[in-house]
Amino acid sequence: xxxxxISILNYKNLEQVELSFxxxxxxxxxxxxxxxxxxxxxVYFLSFCKSAGNPIDSQNICHDADFFVIQGFYEAADGxxxxxxxxxxxxxxxxxxxxKKEYTxxxxxxxxxxxxxxxxxxxxxxxxxxxxxxxxxxxxxxxYDKEYLDALIRYNKALVQRNTLLKSEQPVEEELFLEEMMxxxxxxxxxxxxxxxxxxxxxxxxFYSFISQDREKxxxxxxxxxxDASLLEVLKESRARDQIMGYSLRGxxxxxxxxxxxxxxxKREGSQGQNKTYLVALKLAQFDFLKRTGTTVPLLxxxxxFDKLDASxxxxxxxxxxxxxxxxxxxxxTNREHLDRILHKVGSDYKMFRVEQGTVAEMKEEEA
Length: 368
Description:
About 45% of the residues lie in helices and about 25% in strands. By secondary structure, it is α/β, with parallel strands linked by helices.
């Protein structure tokens, strides 16, 4: 899928932006705080029905405005045009439409426009809690497996209801029914996460090896309560303690994805450069995995990815990005030299944009 054109009104600091894109490489140059990341976030919104950085939709409306609108005009591999519209007014529900027809469930849209974004916020995958790493698995698997997304939604809904009952401090017959719902949906989530990680590890290790030029070995391992016993048994055994605590202590909502440098957690052992290499390799492997499992090539968004990397690792990433493995790419940087080196390798099929104070303009050939 190719994003041919985007129209943005009042999204964050982007008051009015109309852009046409290259089907291969689109570079956005400008200082920090000018709106480069906001532009990529608008593209992300069209794929995931939400912002990558702020889940509260109303806070993404430009100051002093009453609404935002993002429209994307895409083209499928067979030439079929697709129009995606998202609009939101303050104190109202957001609207999401495909070809002018509104979705009844936003989850039906997930996976239609597969997308991978690499950004500085990814550092939370290593530094943050286990919920960040579960979210990583969820974002990947949900884009190619509707059964997984449905099971995850059912599990989380039952979990919220069970936690509400646990806080009430009264034994309720409904609890067993909710545990059965959680166990049934949770087993699906566990099985699909386990299969994904098993297939994903060698792809990830291959990307890390290329970028680091085999300087370090990395790995991933997946832990889940569902591996200990049947999930229903796990929930029943934990019920007494859960009632004391007022929430569910065990289940797939506590799964962990261990990120390893050698045999040790990278969170403890990794340098800034190794951490950044790990995250970039993780996201490029995510792209490759979605490309293999899906019916359309994902969009790739690279937001300020070269910071904290030495020259040799920057060069290896530039080689990857400039190659033919990826489809349409959107990349931002404050360093013009990085972008120039990518453009030099790619050749003619690119567009360069300057971003200043929320305005975005395509740069003329003599400027680029």
